[in-house]
Amino acid sequence: MTGKLFIVGTPIGNLEDITFRAVRTLKEVDLILCEDTRVTRRLLEKYEIQNKQLTTYNEERSGVAIEKIAEWLEDGKNVALVSDAGTPGISDPGTYLVQKIREVLPEVGIESVPGPSALTAALSIAGVPVSDFVFLGFLPHKKGRETLFKEIAVSERAMIFYESPHRILKTLESLEKHSPQKKVTIARELTKVFEQIISGTASELLKYFEANRDKVRGEFVVIAH
Predict the structure, then answer these.
(1) Mean pLDDT rounded to a whole number for the chain
(2) Does one domain contain both 158 and 173?
(3) Where a domain ends, among 71, 97, 113?
C-alpha cells in the first residue's frame, strides 16, 4: 500500500495559529518535508512533536529530490509538506511537487490540511470591499515588473500581492508613478505583536515608511484598490 502526501498549512507568525488536525498529522506522518528545518523544528518543539524525521525540500534550491519522495510514498510512508509559514503552494514551495506526484504516482492520495494564509488574513482585517480580486503572489524582481504595475493601474478589480521589506519602498514608488489616485492598503507583521494595517495613496504610504524606517520590516501584503 502506498503512503499519503499531506499538504499542511502552518502559522504565518503566531505559533498558536495551527489546527488540531495539522498537529495530529505532523505527529502521525513518517517524515516532514520542510522549507527550512530550523523553522519547522521550532513549531514541532512548541507542540511536543518529537523524534520526527525532517528533510529539506525546496523547488528552487538544493534539497531532497522528488524521485526520493516518490520512493518513500511507494514504500508506504506518509509524508507531510510544510512551508516556513502559511500554506504550501501559495507563493511557497509545493505546487511542482504535487504536480509531479500526481503524474508519476496517480494512486497516491494527496490531502490538504488547510491552515493560515497571509492573503486571507490581510483581507479579513483590511476593511476593503473585495467581492473579487486578483492575487499576484510575489512580483518578479525585474522582468515584467513594470508591466504588472501598468496592469494594476487600469484594473477595476483589487490587485493583491506580497512584498518584502527590501523592495517595499520601490514598490510604492512604482505605484505612485502608475496609480497615483488608487488607494493602497498594506498589512504587515500579520498575527505578530506589531501587526499593522495602514491605508492611503501610494504617495502617502511612501512618505510614512520613509519617515518610519523601523516599520520597514516583516512581510507585506499590498492591496491596490
Answers:
(1) 94
(2) yes
(3) 113
Domain count for the chain: 2
User: Which range among 46-55, 86-95, 161-170, 182-191 shows the weakest confidence by mean pLDDT?
Assistant: 86-95
* Residues 94 and 124 both lie in one domain: no
| Strand partners for 31 | 53, 79
Three-state SS letters, the chain = CCCEEEEECECCCCCCCCCHHHHHHHHHCCEEEECCHHHHHHHHHHCCCCCCEEEECCCCCCCCCHHHHHHHHHCCCCEEECCCCECCCCCCCCHHHHHHHHHHCCCCEEEEECCCCHHHHHHHHHCCCCCCEEEEEECCCCCCHHHHHHHHHHCCCEEEEEECCCCHHHHHHHHHHHCCCCEEEEEECCCCCCCEEEEEEHHHHHHHHHHCHHHCCCCEEEEEC
What digits encode the pLDDT tens for the residues 100-118? 999 999 999 999 999 999 9
Statement to judge: residues 19 and 73 lie in one domain: yes
Instruction: Specify the pLDDT at position 63.
Output: 66
Is 186 found in the same domain as 97?
Answer: no
- On whether both 105 and 175 belong to a single domain, the answer is no
Predicted structure pTM score: 0.90
Which domain does 101 fall in, by range?
A: 4-113
The CB density around residue 76, as the number of other CB atoms within 10 Å, is 11
Q: How do residues 37-92 score in pLDDT, each as one tens digit?
A: 999 999 999 999 999 999 999 877 666 889 999 999 999 999 999 999 999 999 88
